[in-house]
Design goal:
The chain is mainly α. The protein has one domain: MetI-like (MetI-like fold), CATH 1.10.3720.10. Helices cover about 70% and strands about 0% of the residues. It has a two-stranded antiparallel ribbon. Strand 1 and strand 2 form a beta hairpin. This is sn-glycerol-3-phosphate transport system permease protein UgpA. Pfam families: BPD_transp_1. It is found in: Cell inner membrane; Cell membrane. Keywords: Cell inner membrane, Cell membrane, Membrane, Transmembrane, Transmembrane helix, Transport.
């Protein structure tokens, strides 16, 4: 019996329905709700609201502390992405040269990814505590006075290194898999021609890793913008002052502590648009040099 394909036209949609429902409930509906609230002003209890149009956005862009948060976020994302990708690529490159204990080293490098961001923040908080931190004590032995609760530069670099440590496993896995996928014949041919390990890496391996590097660059920027909130909240709470208050942490602070729901919603919309624009620009212009 011949079965026509039109009898199963609804089957793909039925199979996609559970996932579409989850996306609609947990992504599209909150996004629409934030967009709607960004044009409103509410009291601290959220019971009374009135339409204010673009006033929330105007006040936001006129606030110099908001631009300070923008600068903090850009600075934070730049160093986390640059140092995180560089260190991960360095580890993946030398992991290929390991002969004994490969399983142990790979497991050790992948382990941080299994730790949740809030746990990462708590661990680093205890290690770098000004009063009883073990690393703080070691730094004092070599003459370095560490107190990230009073020093804004120390606080910023503390959250940078904690965020890098959390994400390094993810980056390492992709770089290691990308290096393994490069044909060995290319490396052997370059070695026969007299190219050393570093020259082989920069002229053959790294250019072929460009698609992987580009992908990880986008992922790391999005990670810094959203997934580092728990690390910052448990480590510095945005302080000292506002030194580590990124855009996502400021959204939380204004919405849940300052009870300024309209401004918090407006910041959410701006952040969402900024990340979408950044992703579109990267995929449209930077991806021209890479092939998938």
């Amino acid at each position: 019996m011949k079965i026509h394909y039109t009898q199963y036209r609804l089957l793909p949609w039925l199979l996609l329905l559970p996932q579409l429902f989850i996306i609609a409930v947990f992504f599209y509906w909150p996004a629409i709700q934030s967009l709607y609230q960004s044009f409103q002003m509410q009291d601290i209890f959220g019971s009374v609201s009135y339409w204010v149009g673009f006033d929330n956005f105007k006040q936001l862009f006129d606030d110099p502390t908001y631009w300070d948060s923008v600068y903090t976020t850009v600075y934070f994302s730049f160093w986390v992405t640059l140092l995180g990708l560089g260190l991960s690529l360095f580890l993946a490159f030398f992991m290929q040269r390991v002969i004994k204990g490969v399983v142990f080293y790979r497991t050790f490098l992948i382990l941080p990814y299994a730790v949740s961001p809030i746990v990462v923040g708590v661990l680093w908080m205890f290690m770098f505590s000004p009063s009883f931190g073990i690393i703080t004590y070691a730094l004092e032995l070599i003459g370095i006075d560490w107190n990230h609760k009073m020093n804004s530069d120390q606080a910023m670099w503390l959250v940078i290194f904690a965020a890098i440590w959390k994400q390094i496993s993810y980056n390492f896995l992709f770089f290691y898999a990308g290096l393994q996928a490069i044909p060995k014949s290319l490396i052997e041919a370059a070695a026969i021609d007299g190219a050393g390990p570093w020259r082989r890496f920069f002229t053959i391996q790294f250019p072929l890793l460009w698609p992987t590097t580009f992908f990880l660059c986008v992922i790391n920027i999005v990670y810094v913008f959203f997934d580092t909130f728990a690390i910052i909240d448990s480590l510095t709470q945005g302080g000292p002052g506002k030194a580590t208050s990124t855009l996502v942490y400021r959204i939380y602070f204004d919405g849940f502590k300052a009870m300024d729901y309209g401004s918090s919603a407006a910041q959410s919309v701006v952040l969402m648009c900024f990340v979408l624009l950044l992703t579109v620009i990267q995929f449209r212009y930077m991806d021209k040099k890479g092939g998938y």
